[in-house]
Write a structure and sequence with these properties.
- With about 325 residues, this protein is an alpha+beta fold.
- The chain is built from 8 helices and 10 strands.
- The strands form 2 sheets. It has a 6-stranded antiparallel sheet with strand order 6-5-4-1-8-9, covered by helices on one side.
- Strand 8 (about 240-245) and strand 9 form a beta hairpin.
- The longest helix has 18 residues, at about 275-290.
């Protein structure tokens, strides 16, 4: 190989071989081709315009998505009721000595909500959010200023929103909707008694502060919207909300409510015959479970069914 390199160096004195190269001589890279805009012999060089410098703009920084989990035991309020609760909470946090009695708190609550008779800050709330229940979009009344998703019978210190509410209106569906969507829309507004053991949650609409005042004294009724197992609310603007009495201001977001868990609760039913029936039925279920006639799951399901059947007699 050294002989070949020396011979090549002798034959090509302008291109001496590199003794440290391990590549064959025949694989040497060819000389670079002349540039495309090089001046040809006898022609003046062509002048090409210099391209303008590029301006690099920084990409906008997108806010990271944040998911917050809250446990709802009793109710979720969106709109006017949460707004009044939020203002009441803010003033009480700033001046706790002003709130010393239950009667005084009610007076403050009324005074805080009174200015909204004119402002109507939560008017047309249906245009500020989208309500979807069990996969079906549910329209919100135009005069509504608040939505209440309730998991209990009683609200606002003694108001039975669902039980005394106006009947739910049929939910419009597109003409080309599938049979499953039509069946789901019809099931949402089917008249059913509210119970805490059925796995359903109720959605009602309320008006402004004047309507809330009439509700508190039994002179008005809420508007039933539906009963469902899952809810998705997409808000378009910042809205006040409250979960079990804890108010906050929520940025535009998507709120999803689903069933989490159930627990056995004690409930006073009075000295009626329903109490004796419930006690006897519970003893029968416990005896059957201890003798292995039914499983724990079957006992729980039968107890739930018994509670829902006996509620009308309480």
């Amino acid at each position: 190989q050294q002989q070949q390199q020396q011979q090549h160096s002798a034959d090509n004195p302008q291109h001496p071989a590199s003794p440290s190269s391990s590549l064959p001589l025949s694989s040497a890279a060819p000389a670079p081709a002349p540039a495309a805009d090089a001046a040809a012999p006898g022609r003046p060089p062509s002048s090409s315009p210099t391209p303008p410098p590029l301006l690099l703009l920084p990409l906008p920084q997108l806010a990271p998505q944040v998911t917050t989990h809250k446990t709802l035991n009793n109710y979720l309020g969106i709109g006017i009721d949460a707004k009044v609760a939020l203002e009441f909470h803010s003033i009480r946090e700033a001046y706790p000595s002003w709130f010393q009695s239950q009667f005084g708190n009610k007076v403050w609550y009324t005074g805080i909500g009174a200015p909204d008779l004119i402002r109507r800050s939560c008017a047309a709330i249906g245009e500020k959010l989208q309500l979807v229940c069990d996969g079906v979009e549910v329209p919100v009344p135009m005069d509504a200023e608040g939505l209440i998703i309730t998991n209990i019978n009683c609200h606002m210190g003694g108001v039975y929103l669902w039980e005394t509410g106006l009947p739910a209106q049929p939910i419009p569906v597109p003409p080309n909707a599938t049979s499953a969507v039509k069946a789901a829309a019809a099931s949402l507004v089917r008249p059913r008694r509210q119970t805490i053991a059925d796995g359903l949650i109720e959605v009602v609409a309320i008006g402004g502060v004047a309507h809330m005042g009439r509700l508190a004294v039994g002179l008005a009724r809420a508007q039933r919207l539906c009963q469902c197992t899952s809810i998705s609310i997409t808000t378009k603007v910042k809205l006040p909300m409250q979960v079990d009495g804890e108010p906050f201001l929520q940025e535009p977001s998507r709120v999803v409510v689903t069933h989490k868990d159930q627990a056995t609760m004690l409930r006073r039913v009075g000295g009626s015959s329903a109490l004796r029936v419930a006690s006897a039925a519970d003893e029968v279920l416990q005896s059957a479970f201890e003798r292995g006639l039914i499983t724990a799951q079957q006992r729980s399901e039968l107890a739930k069914e018994m509670v829902s059947r006996l509620e009308p007699f309480n």
